[in-house]
Write a structure and sequence with these properties.
Largest sheet: 8 strands, parallel, barrel
Distance between the termini: 34 Å
Strand order of the largest sheet: 1-2-5-8-9-13-14-15
Family: Belongs to the glycosyl hydrolase 13 family.
Helix content: 25-40%
Catalytic activity: Endohydrolysis of (1->4)-alpha-D-glucosidic linkages in polysaccharides containing three or more (1->4)-alpha-linked D-glucose units
GO molecular function: alpha-amylase activity; cation binding
Enzyme class: hydrolase
Radius of gyration: 24 Å
Keywords: Carbohydrate metabolism, Glycosidase, Hydrolase, Signal
Number of strands: 23
Length: 583
Amino acid sequence: MRKMFGLSAVMSAAALALAACSDSESQGPADQARAVSSPEVAESALTQVNNFSADPFWNNATIYFMLPDRFYNGNPDNDLSYGRKNDAAHMRGFLGGDLRGVIQKLEEGYFTDLGVDAIWMSPIIENVHGYDEGDKRTYAFHGYWPKDWTNVDANFGSEAELAELIEKAHNKGVRILMDVIINHTGPVTSEDPLWPADWVRTNPQCDWSSFAQNVQCALTNNLPDILTESETPVELPPQLVEKWRGEGRLDQEQAELDAFFARTGYPRAPKYYIVKWLTDWVREYGVDGFRVDTVKHTEPEIWAVLKKEASVALAEWKAANTDKKLDDREFFMVGEVYHFGVDNFANSDGRFYDYGDRKVDFFNYGFDSLINMGFASHAAKDMESIFSTYSGILHGGALEGVSVLNYLGSHDDQGSYDRERKQVKSAALKLMLAPGAAQIYYGDEIARPMIDEQAYGDASMRVPMDWSSLQNANTSDILAHWQKLGRFRQSHLAVGAGVHQQISAAPYVFSRTLDNDRVMVAVDMPAGEKVVKAADVFAEGALVKDYYSGVEARVENGVLTFDTEFDVLLLGAPEQTELSANQ
């Protein structure tokens, strides 16, 4: 698959296939994972995919989500690739952001200063070259219209730049999540033909009334739906064969596919091709996890297969790159199940998503976490209502042992919270201090506009980052607020993964506890001297840091006294512990 992958990797994969067949009594964890990945035993193993014991790191992680095209333009030479033109509707064409821009911001320490644990980029694989007129003239700037799962889209940069980005992120302690799609191809355009009938359907269009009417149907009239229910072998689409031949890599791609199907025993059905293509990014570059798109629109079993193959791939990459790996954490997978959320939000029933005629627990099919679509709605409530409810559900409640990813806004949620950016600081407090992981949607931290009156539909929420706005004192102050909250989370896993306990209603004070990690937060405090009772959280004489001001104090007679200009205290031990995301 990879132009950087090479024939040696194909030979290695073939050798693995032989070893798996001949050495069943000496299998390691990776070999065992390969064994249960075969179609014959996959169904019986599906309920064993997740043991529902969430990694505290991921339940506290701060994940930065961006559309690379809208983040930062590091290389103007790739702004219009493949003959694309600057003739799209407002905000519906490529605007220049790319992988080089992300690399530059990594090097500048932007994500480090914000306390980011992982970066999730919308898909960077090669998308359709042409435009679609379904929602006014639109090019695939967002990345969700696949053309070739094996290649980086030239508008975003090169495969070498992706490799550089991942390595530099890891050097900064930042993990990379790739956004992946199995559900559909990109639309048919004048430049992009329809895939063969044994690969995709174009009708019926989903009416959302049942499981089948979410899964075995096209999401829109312009997104051909992959036949993910099929187990029937198919040939490669002729347009891919022609493309790869022209790029001089057809033989390599076919050899890698032969090795993959020989190793796994999967039939050459469409979904297994895509699993192979997606997990190669993990095996080659050490991608830490996937954010999975349109989860509820595909049979859940394929996600378990994707997780198993990705886990094998990451284990192999770490074994071969012991000097580059961050840690020994297993592969992480978070899913977008639209209308799934905490506290039985919308179509949710505890861990289950309710289609009307069938309920599915996606955590049981390989997912470590699901995006909490309900937080944008819940954010209108007061902090204690949110925090106590979430803690009760995540600790001893319906979502015990699993992770959720909260967000204020996103690229396609018209119900995003505070789109007018009138409550930027209080909204940040709610998101960054809520139980569960936190997703920063690019620009939340600088109050990037989420409304563009000239833009049609969801393009209004995809306005580019205005880096010049940081010259404004108010914007810099907002960014500093987010940075303090992010670094506090990163220093203490108890913030997102711990058990919540209210201490005082007015002023609002609470604690979080995760094993030996304890933190305390106070908001709406007076400027200047402020005193908080701390005996139930910190030991007498303990040194405690306020991560908002940087000031430290010791517990004396059960209380902490700080003299700062701020109305917020973010309190925890000053040293990094074993329960720090930095470890």
